[in-house]
């Protein structure tokens, strides 16, 4: 079944990099006021990077698990093959 | 005075792109899972194969719908830090109790729904009563999410309310009808992370704006806003509640009633792969839950300081709009889209949660039990899908009903007092007292629900008076619970109890006939995965927070 970390990771990877790039290209100069005090930082960039990192972690966890599962499967198959060979012998 | 309208952002293509990408992923997950939905159990129960961290986050976000996010922020703007009672008093203790004491009975008895437990423990009529009232409750709740969403989208994006209701209903329909409970759970986990990433910047930017928590507190018009317990004793607190209402009503009846018996949340734990995972589900959910005030209460407090118009008679400035307003004044484009997507996700998953609980109770407890017995599995799978569609349609209807209520939080607590409050008394007696008889449970539950209705009518007519709607709801829940408890006990002693043989594995203290292996108990495990140990840790941390913001 689908590993839930895969879609989550991919979504955050896409959205995070989108935000970071958009923020970098469009810094909110004087557009944003907040009770007459400008926002202290161009939040799109750090937040986008954070989301991208989170996305990468989720996707890698999903891939690692899948790789481990494949390895186990191969091992089981190999052992079964050996056992069959012994039987045949 | 600072005018928000001149400073708020308007949605740009980047914001719409974020929303569209989210829709694409949500629908993609549903279609990807479709091929796994072979049997009715796969569709309605997720085939009992989901790891505990996933069910834990789903458990948490199934009730992270519109009510949690907008309602709690609204409450914070209106009542201050006392709103934290809904977390630290009204959620964590009940979640620990569910994990340690009740989950073993739910999981080991191999029930598919909460009403089914009532059939095994008591009798058919009790189950039918609960199944029907639960089905009614879920669709009434489901509508809140749609309504809140339509309201937000009208305000922030100027979308037509009917159109946004239709679009959200269609998307939820598409992913629940294809992937069933699994799809709903997956989307709940996705939504959990979206909410965290989408709303946390409000709190971060807000605190940066004020410099520190102390500085923010100094800005409150009412100093009581910074405390959660200090003004409960003298009754002059902003919420208008007293000790009995708060601890007995919210801390005991409403919270235990919701977290320990509401099938919407229990269903997530039952989807877990084994008993240990099922027990750990509420525990894993409780750890982030402790910190949720950071995402809901804090923005509400920031909102009331920064947007003084909030709570005025103007409909556009209702407390419910605290978070949407903050998004529009604090976020730049891009992040604004993410914030909107987070809200959208919370509305949709809140609705999907209700719909997936509704379709299970309808299919198993009403349709299969009373309308069409002994049909092939494929027939019930089909019925599950039909129930999903019908549930969504009815939610759209109830959505227009909610529009008549001024405050969504009051509407929700009101519904809980009718159905969950008496049910908790039934469960408490059923699980921990073997003398409780089937007919005692039935009449107790019935009279508890009726008592809540009568109490509500008396309150509306002005015969019973409370300082606030909230206080009324807390006291109503105590009345409903007490009536159910007393009637159940009296009738139980007048009627015959079930023979002990039939209570095995269902009641505390009656030896379990299932072997440990059969019930899926894992013998060897570390203390860190022991529900009781984690529960104690949770309670200590919660107590500390109560002390910190006393």
Draw up the topology in text:
The complex is a heterodimer of chains A (89) and B (550).
Chain A: H1 5-25, E1 33-34, E2 37-38, H2 44-88
Antiparallel strand pairs in A: 1-2
Helix pairs in contact in A: 1-2
Chain B: H1 4-7, H2 13-34, H3 40-45, H4 52-62, H5 66-79, H6 85-88, H7 92-108, H8 114-121, H9 124-157, H10 161-210, H11 213-218, H12 243-261, H13 263-270, H14 275-291, H15 297-306, H16 322-330, H17 335-371, H18 377-402, H19 408-432, H20 438-461, H21 469-494, H22 531-548
Quick summary:
The complex is a heterodimer of chains A (89) and B (550). Chain A has 89 residues and is mainly alpha-helical. Chain A contains two helices and two strands, in the order αββα.
Give descriptors for this structure.
heterodimer, A: about 90 residues, mainly alpha, B: 22 helices, about 70% helix, about 0% strand, globular
Return the average pLDDT of chain A rounded to an integer. 80
Element-level helix/strand string of chain A:
HEEH
Low-confidence stretches of chain B: 1-6
Strand order of the largest sheet of chain A: 1-2
Question: Judging from the principal axes of the Cα atoms, what is the shape of chain A?
Answer: rod-shaped
Oligomeric state of the chains in view: heterodimer
């Amino acid at each position: 079944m689908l590993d839930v970390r895969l879609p989550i990771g991919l979504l955050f990877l896409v959205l995070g990099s989108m935000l970071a790039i958009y923020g970098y290209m469009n810094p909110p100069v004087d557009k944003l006021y907040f009770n007459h005090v400008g926002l202290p930082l161009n939040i799109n960039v750090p937040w986008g990077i954070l989301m991208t990192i989170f996305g990468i972690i989720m996707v890698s966890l999903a891939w690692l698990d899948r790789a481990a599962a494949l390895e186990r499967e191969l091992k089981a198959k190999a052992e079964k093959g050996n056992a069959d060979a012994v039987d045949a012998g | 005075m600072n005018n928000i309208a001149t400073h708020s952002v308007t949605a740009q293509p980047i914001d719409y792109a974020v929303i569209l990408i989210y829709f694409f992923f949500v629908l993609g997950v549903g279609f990807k899972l479709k091929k796994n939905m072979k049997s009715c159990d796969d569709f309605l129960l997720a085939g009992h194969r989901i790891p505990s961290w996933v069910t834990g986050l789903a458990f948490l976000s199934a009730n992270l719908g519109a009510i949690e996010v907008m309602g709690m922020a609204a409450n914070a703007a209106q009542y201050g830090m006392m709103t934290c009672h809904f977390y630290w008093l009204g959620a964590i203790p009940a979640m620990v109790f569910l994990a340690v004491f009740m989950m073993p009975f739910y999981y080991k008895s191999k029930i598919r729904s909460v009403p089914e437990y009532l059939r095994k423990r008591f009798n058919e009529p009790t189950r039918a009563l609960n199944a029907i009232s639960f089905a009614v409750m879920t669709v009434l709740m489901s509508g809140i999410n749609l309504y809140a969403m339509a309201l937000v989208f009208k305000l922030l994006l100027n979308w037509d309310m009917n159109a946004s209701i239709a679009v959200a209903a269609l998307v939820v329909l598409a992913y629940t009808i294809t992937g069933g409970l699994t799809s709903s759970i997956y989307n709940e986990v996705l939504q959990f992370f979206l909410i965290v990433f989408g709303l946390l910047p409000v709190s971060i930017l807000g605190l940066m704006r004020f410099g520190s928590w102390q500085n923010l507190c100094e800005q409150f018009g009412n100093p009581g806003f910074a405390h959660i317990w200090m003004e409960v004793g003298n009754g002059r607190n902003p919420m208008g509640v007293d000790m009995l209402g708060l601890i007995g009503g919210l801390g005991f009846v409403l919270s235990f009633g919701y977290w320990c018996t509401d099938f919407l949340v229990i269903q997530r734990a039952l989807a877990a792969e084994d008993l240990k995972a099922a027990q750990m589900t509420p525990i894993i959910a409780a750890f982030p839950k402790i910190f949720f005030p950071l995402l809901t209460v804090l923005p509400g407090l920031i909102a009331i300081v920064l947007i003084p118009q909030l709570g005025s008679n103007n409909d556009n400035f209702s407390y419910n709009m605290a978070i949407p307003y903050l998004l529009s004044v604090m976020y730049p484009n891009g992040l604004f889209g993410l914030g909107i997507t987070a809200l959208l996700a919370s509305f949709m998953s809140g609705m999907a949660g209700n719909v997936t609980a509704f379709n299970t109770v309808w299919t198993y407890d009403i349709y299969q039990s009373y309308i069409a017995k002994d049909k092939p599995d494929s027939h019930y799978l089909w019925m599950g899908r039909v129930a999903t569609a019908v549930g969504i349609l009815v939610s759209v209807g109830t959505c227009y009903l909610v529009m008549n209520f001024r405050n969504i939080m009051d509407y929700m607590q009101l519904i809980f007092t009718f159905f969950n409050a008496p049910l908790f008394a039934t469960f408490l007696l059923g699980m921990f007292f073997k003398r409780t008889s089937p007919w005692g449970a039935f009449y107790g539950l019935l009279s508890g629900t009726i008592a809540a209705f009568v109490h509500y009518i008396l309150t509306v007519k002005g015969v019973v008076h409370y300082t606030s709607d909230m206080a009324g709801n807390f006291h109503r829940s105590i009345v409903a619970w007490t009536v159910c408890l007393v009637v159940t006990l009296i009738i139980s002693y007048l009627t015959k109890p079930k023979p002990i043989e039939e209570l095995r594995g269902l009641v505390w203290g009656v030896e379990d006939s299932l072997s440990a292996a059969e019930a899926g108990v894992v013998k060897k495990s570390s203390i860190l995965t022991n529900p009781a140990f984690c529960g104690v840790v949770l309670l200590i941390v919660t107590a500390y927070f109560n002390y910190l913001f006393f």
